[in-house]
Amino acid sequence: MVTPIYAAVLALMFVVLSARVIAFQRNARVGLGDGGNRGLLRRIRAHRNFAEYVPFSLVLMALAEAQNCPSWTIHALGSALVIGRVLHAIGVTTEPETAGFRVAGMGRRSQC
Fold it and tell me: Where are the domains of the chain?
């Protein structure tokens, strides 16, 4: 099974994103929400976006693997997911926003 490897890596990334939100909240003395702090809002958004997309992506990977998709395909999907999530998190949390990273992390072209 290949999908659990990527699930573990992504779980660690989720913990890191969570810790970054918590640390920023403590430093900004914000108990709930973003307190109007743009930096905290960016970290919350990166965390939330990760939570919105990664679980479903892992389910789809597991389904593809269960259908005997070649392991290289699962590795390609998992690698793309990990790289995309890292780039997206960097792009969203960087001030000013690094749109290129965010867009690359989402797999879309910029419409400039």
Answer: 3-106
